[in-house]
Amino acid sequence: MAMVPIEVSARHIHLSKEHADLLFGEAYVFTPVKELSQLHQFAYEEEIEIQTNQTFGLPECEAFTFGRRSGKNLVRFLGPVRKETQLELSQTDAFMLGITVPVKVSGDLDHTPGGIVLIGPNGQVVLEKGIIIPQRHIHCSTLNAKRHGLRNGQSVSVQVNNDSGLLFENVIVRVDPEFAWHMHLNTDEGNAAGISKGGEGEVLK
């Protein structure tokens, strides 16, 4: 089968137009700092502060933070804007927040939790839903799908090509004409596989 590049995605957020306007202002122009592997996708310089309902408004020393040090509660905004806001976390992040978060394919926000306060320079928003742990997946163009005999929504396994010997099952194939051939893991999965900046795996049906 085919070899696929593997990328690790840290926690991040996709904002709706409504929430972007509320957090940053309607006339705000975001600053791209990195072009992502998927076409027309960018990481922006702007970050969003995350707090729980219980910690919102508390002094920094008592506020929520990812990890032990204070002030580590920011998530990167990945754009462009979407129809709905989606906060993507690892299981470790969810444990820190004290919430149960389902594993979901990106964009499937039915029955997802909210209750997190998003804080920007222009205001704040209580997220009613949209927190997920992203299902590990492969972005696949229509051409690559035909080449490798894959279909949209198919579940495959990927054997990581390093000393970890890790086999990822239940990897969802997502097909779109503009998708670039990459597999995405969250940070927990990347750490388990010994992958930080990038790796490679063999796609097994």
Question: Keyphrases for this structure?
Answer:
single chain; 205 residues; mainly beta; 9-stranded mixed sheet; 14% helix; 38% strand
Topology:
Layout: E1 3-9, E2 12-14, H1 17-24, E3 32-35, E4 42-52, E5 74-79, E6 86-88, H2 91-97, E7 103-104, E8 116-119, E9 124-127, E10 131-134, E11 137-140, H3 142-148, E12 155-160, E13 167-175, E14 182-186, H4 187-192, E15 199-204
Parallel strand pairs: 1-14, 2-5, 6-10, 7-10, 11-13
Antiparallel strand pairs: 1-15, 2-6, 3-4, 4-5, 4-8, 8-9, 11-14, 12-13, 12-15
Q: Could you characterize the architecture of this molecule?
A:
- The chain is mainly β and 205 residues long.
- The protein folds into two domains: 10-133, no CATH class; 137-204, no CATH class.
- The chain is 14% helix and 38% strand.
- It has helices at 17-24, 91-97, 142-148, 187-192; strands spanning 3-9, 12-14, 32-35, 42-52, 74-79, 86-88, 103-104, 116-119, 124-127, 131-134, 137-140, 155-160, 167-175, 182-186, 199-204.
- The strands form two sheets. Strands 2, 3, 4, 5, 6, 7, 8, 9 and 10 form a nine-stranded mixed sheet that branches. Strands 1-14-11-13-12-15 form a six-stranded mixed beta barrel.
- A hairpin with a 6-residue loop joins strand 12 (155-160) and strand 13 (167-175).
- The longest helix is centred in the first third of the chain and has 8 residues, at 17-24.
- The radius of gyration is 18 Å and the shape is globular.
- The protein starts with a strand and ends with a strand.
- The model has no long low-confidence stretch (mean pLDDT 94).
